[in-house]
Amino acid sequence: MKKNNTTHFMSSVLMIGFVAIFLIISGRFLFIQGTGKVQGVSLNKWADEQRTTSYTLEAKRGQILDRNGMTLAYDRATYRLFAIVDESYTTNPDSPMHVKDPSSTAEALAPILDMDTNEIENRIQKGIDQGQFQVEFGKSGRELSQSTKEEIDKLNLPGIQFKKESIRGYPNGTFASRVIGLAQKENGNISGVTGIEKQMNEVLTGKQGNISYQRDLFNVKLLNPKEIVKEPENGDDIYLTIDQKIQTLLENSMSQVQEQYEPSRMTAIVMNPKTGEVLAMSNRPSYNPNNMGEVENWYNDAISTPFEPGSTMKIFTLASAIEEGVWDPNKMYKSGSYTNEQMNGVTINDWQQDWGTISFKEGIQRSSNVAAAKLAWEELGTETFLDYLKAFRFDQPTGIDLPGEVSGKILYNYPVEKVTTAFGQGSTVTPIQQMMAASAIANKGKMMRPYVVSKVIDSQSGDVLQENNSEVVGAPISPETAGRVIDVLETVITSDVGTGQSYKLTDYTVAGKTGTAEIPDSKTRNYMTGKENYIFSFLGMAPKEDPELIMYVSVKQPKLDPTESGSAPVSFIFKNVMENGLHYLNIEPDQDNQEEINAAEITDVVGLPVRDAQKKIIDLGGNPVVIGNGGTIKRISPKVGSTILPGERVLLVSDKPKMPDITGWSVRDVLRLGSLFQLNIETKGNGYGVQQSIKSGASLEDESNLAVEFSPPAFPSELKDGEKQDINQNDRTPEN
């Protein structure tokens, strides 16, 4: 009985326990069913979240365009390749949605992606072995073009899919690259790093949208997907003051000088002095934002690199003296050297040491340091001169709407520094500071702030959201003084003793000043020596009576022939851009062109070193275009004995030919190139080259296919090439 009672008791306990557990579980189910919540989490909401997928809808970054609407930067569609390797993604065995055969898939993709077959197969197989849903193919599988995507699509490879992505595209390569800047993708978003891309990043950047919907296990939309779409807001478009035609003239000219003279640095700016609009700005070395490689210099030297400017500074010493009423062009002084009792034995010398007793006007024409020193110390007085330097705003940045501007520094502590500043030594300035100051000379005394952003446009509605206007930032001199300064600066070009004779234009009068700036040597704490160790520059404006353009050019340490002066590369850039730029702007010529245009016969340059061959063609008045990286010339077109007109292209082929940039080439020039290499040429349109199928710098093989698109010129056809090769090798005037 005792044993039986114990058994009944334990059975009762177990039954009660089971009943309690059942009631608890049932109660829990009833609670969940009634409230629809588990631990405070809504099951309906949780289920929705599990069934709902969402994607970001990319907002397009705003475009950057030139003043006439030509696209300079835009979001370019690319594709990321990936392979689905999870077998469960396939619901119908007859239509596989995953990679079934890694080996054949790898063999098909390898030549298109330029990857090793084994590498592709190993990536796919590794993904399968590790149970991954999908695999990617590294750098080779990213940023694929539309044509590459279409080529892969035609293969109908199971499991191979694409994701559309945007990267920043720059259709003109190095064109104004330091102004436009660079934007790169970081953490899925494109943001500006340099230039306008950085300066206007907030305006260019849009707001991302998104889309969400409910789907099944295989990411297929349900019949009632409850789709929600939030449209993206695209970024606004930026129009620059840069003019594509003038910028192209500048880029082409600088590239030719870079190739021929191999300078360490170059900078050039073209500006409208009446508005402050920067029409062109470029530096060398430059970079191609589409293919960065190694960037030698990230700085925009035009605004970020102060240096001792040399004799272009004499423009402002002269202007100060005229405005102050102490300028007498006919007053005589003893040239050669200058010192005073407060300079502690330091002597200022003229570059040719001594021209004897000459007038101050001749001193400016000859670029006499002594003339500038005496004007500052004896005529103006150094404190008054300092007031004018500040009035020209050499003590502060211009405020140009580009990032990274650095102001120069007026070095004015000791008597010798106050004297050397008058002719551009000691104190430092940037090219853009000189341009702003020079606008007062060219614009009747009114100094204009330089700017590069013209307007901001709503990319969707086309409405103008912001428009920049010209801003007068000072009036350091009177209109009368500005006119008198221009009169004197014109004689720097026209006088028999002027240092600017090589800067004469064919159709327009020019006023300007040469500069030869010494380069500090960090090792010796002195200035570098040697014929080529200078920064050669020119600051000029035209037409002289009412300047429409002002331009600054500097070339640092060019490799000169023994008979060449530093003005050769500088004047080549200035004359090409200024002459053709003024014609393009339909500015009426203000002087008659009485020069005869004579044809020249091509001499044999085959077998000569490239540099010698170039010089011979330039001496004939031709425009040499070197095709290849070799040291000697192998072929030439037109052939030896043919006649050429001034500025006509002559193709010089050396070893390892590379495709040239044929922008601006005529049909005849392109056909000459084709005959040299037996190219199969396909042309579209007429006029001058604007696009080419073989990229500039690519290897050029015989019998290749070349498609070229031509477009009519936007300015007189005889000027379209923009490359009048008028480096006058007979102009040997030294300068300072």
TrEMBL record:
GO terms for cellular component: plasma membrane. Gene3D superfamilies: 2.20.70.70, 3.30.70.2110, DD-peptidase/beta-lactamase superfamily (3.40.710.10), Penicillin-binding protein 2a (Domain 2) (3.90.1310.10). Residues 596-655 form the PASTA domain. It is an enzyme of class 3 (hydrolase). The chain crosses the membrane at residues 12-31. The keyword Metal-binding does not apply. This is serine-type D-Ala-D-Ala carboxypeptidase.
